[in-house]
Specification:
single chain, 259 residues, alpha/beta, Rossmann fold, Helicase, Ruva Protein, domain 3, 2 domains, 7-stranded mixed beta sheet, binds S-adenosylmethionine, rRNA_Ade_diMease-like_C, SAM-dependent_MTases_sf, Ribosomal RNA small subunit methyltransferase A, rRNA_Ade_methylase_Trfase_N
């Protein structure tokens, strides 16, 4: 234990027991679940999760942490550590390999790549039962934001089109070693069932959302120039003079479908 945390890997190790317990009880793992942890670090969450799940997989990029974690886990359960960048892990292939229909993913994420990890998971949402992540509180606020909110944006729309987003609780900097500069929060993401997923081309939806929020203060007719013309925007019952932040996630799907 007590390896020197590496800033470059976004290492902030959770040490406060009550938050560890709260996260584990929010996940409520069962022995029949296929739990996959992203960034196990020294095992703050891994060991209590493993104690209940008995068998789990953890994906860790920092080689130096792996032998210690393997050793500590040995008496607790069957831990398989995948040494990889999580962004290179194909969760659908991993689920097949583990013989699971869908994975339960958890992690106190490395904050320097939290958005790429979220987008990566959303791409593999069909292979995922649920996700419980610790992130910067500001990111969780953006993920769960509703139209009209100052922090409603690309992350809110893209995540809410794929999952239900439920913020669970806040965690103060002092719960980590070393303490991060910001408050953190735990969030639950549950991928939507196929019948509630947007009917449209994901690449087009991505393009519309990205363009619409690229300049928040500009109107849709401006930001979507070259993608969707004014008449088409109006034909959907959407005011071309409106700003992206006033549209519901489903409106972006409609816009993508007339692109
Ligand atoms: N779960 C531990 C805890 O709660 O104390 C550690 C959390 S720490 C915030 C983030 C962990 O993610 C570190 O162990 C770090 O080495 C690992 N990590 C960083 N980048 C990663 C990546 N691209 N893929 C997988 N793990 C990564």
């Amino acid at each position: 234990m007590n390896a020197r945390p590496k800033k470059s890997f976004g290492q902030h190790f959770l040490h406060e027991k009550r938050y560890i317990e709260r996260i584990v009880s929010s996940i409520a793992p069962k022995e029949s679940d296929t739990v996959v942890e992203i960034g196990p670090g020294e095992g703050a969450l891994t060991l209590p999760l493993l104690a209940v799940a008995k068998k789990m997989t953890a994906i860790e990029l920092d080689t130096d942490l792996i032998p210690g974690l393997q050793q500590r886990a040995a008496t607790v359960g069957d831990l398989r550590i995948v040494h990889s960048d999580v962004l290179k892990v194909d969760f659908a292939a991993l689920a097949r390999e583990l013989g699971a229909e869908r994975l339960r993913i958890a992690g106190n994420l490395p904050y320097y790549i939290s958005s790429p990890i979220l987008f990566h998971c959303v791409e593999h949402a069909a292979a995922i039962q649920d996700m419980h992540f610790m992130l910067q509180k500001e990111v969780v606020d953006r993920m769960a934001a509703e139209p009209g909110s100052k922090v409603y944006g690309r992350l809110s729309v893209m995540l809410q089109l794929a999952c239900t987003v439920t913020p669970l609780f806040t965690v103060p900097p002092g719960a980590f070693r070393p303490p991060p500069k910001v408050d953190s929060a735990v969030v639950r993401l549950v991928p939507l069932p196929p019948e509630r997923l947007p009917q449209g081309d994901p690449a087009k939806i991505h393009a519309v959302v990205k363009a619409a929020f690229a300049m928040r203060r500009k109107t849709l007719s401006n930001t979507l120039k070259g993608l969707v013309d004014e008449a088409s925007i109006r034909s959907l019952g959407i005011d071309p003079r409106a700003r992206a932040e006033t549209l519901a996630p489903a409106d972006f799907v409609k816009l993508a479908n007339v692109m």
